[in-house]
Design the sequence.
């Protein structure tokens, strides 16, 4: 039995122990919980948009959604024990699944009626969150950091309750400077302090491709390291572990899905 099958089996055991989870269809959920109203930010209607094949955490009939439920349980428990609310998702190199892991983790957390989550795209060189949700942002986080847009102009609700997106736009060549700027530090601090009950997930650039992520990591509580099965090399894992040694790593996610 491979690790994905083990994860699926363990997720089903956890659901049985807990008596099962509420249906994750956000349009028909009737249980009580947090249901924010987004009146000052853009809402991107899901109607008429093709269903992204790799965004599965909010589709309970998809077998991989159980994997992200299990990841959600582990992440929320570990964050709760240490009273943390911010998480950076990273990997050694590009193409190892960190963005899809960050998105599906955020989707799965948003399916929990007791949670709200903000997903932030820090991949200024090659932003991907808006592409997976299939919309073109009118303004992005890099525009805010450059003083070209207000924060509310950048925030987007993808027509999913309890989920906010802060996308990036374009291809910034000064990404390292933006991520370590006083404006970014102030924003990270303000987001955490102003929304203490909201989990904030940062999709960060790959560790070994640039210094962008290392420069930003002091602004977050914890990190989740994504490894792609049979792709990430042992030497890359060891080098990444050295770079992350001064930071709180909440765990490692092995991505075996192509």
Sequence:
């Amino acid at each position: 039995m491979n690790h994905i099958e083990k994860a699926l089996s363990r997720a089903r055991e956890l659901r049985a122990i807990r008596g099962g989870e509420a249906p994750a269809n956000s349009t028909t959920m009737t249980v009580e919980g947090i249901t924010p109203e987004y009146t000052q930010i853009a809402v991107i209607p899901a109607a008429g948009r093709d269903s992204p094949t790799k965004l599965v955490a909010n589709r309970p009939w998809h077998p991989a959604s159980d994997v992200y439920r299990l990841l959600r349980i582990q992440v929320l428990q570990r964050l709760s024990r240490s009273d943390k609310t911010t998480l950076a998702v990273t990997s050694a190199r590009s193409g190892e699944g960190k963005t899809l892991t960050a998105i599906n983790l955020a989707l799965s957390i948003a399916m929990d009626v007791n949670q709200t989550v903000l997903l932030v795209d820090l991949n200024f060189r090659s932003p991907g969150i808006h592409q997976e949700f299939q919309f073109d942002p009118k303004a992005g986080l890099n525009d805010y950091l450059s003083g070209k847009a207000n924060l509310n102009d950048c925030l987007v609700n993808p027509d999913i309750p309890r989920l906010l997106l802060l996308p990036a736009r374009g291809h910034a060549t000064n990404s390292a400077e933006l991520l370590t700027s006083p404006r970014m530090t102030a924003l990270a601090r303000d987001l955490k302090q102003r929304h203490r009950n909201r989990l904030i997930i940062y999709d960060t650039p790959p560790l070994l491709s640039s210094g962008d992520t290392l420069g930003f990591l002091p602004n977050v509580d914890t990190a989740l390291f994504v490894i792609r099965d049979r792709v990430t090399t042992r030497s890359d894992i060891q080098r990444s572990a050295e770079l992350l040694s001064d930071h709180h790593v909440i765990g490692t996610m092995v991505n075996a899905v192509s």
In short: Residues 65-81 form the longest helix (17 residues).
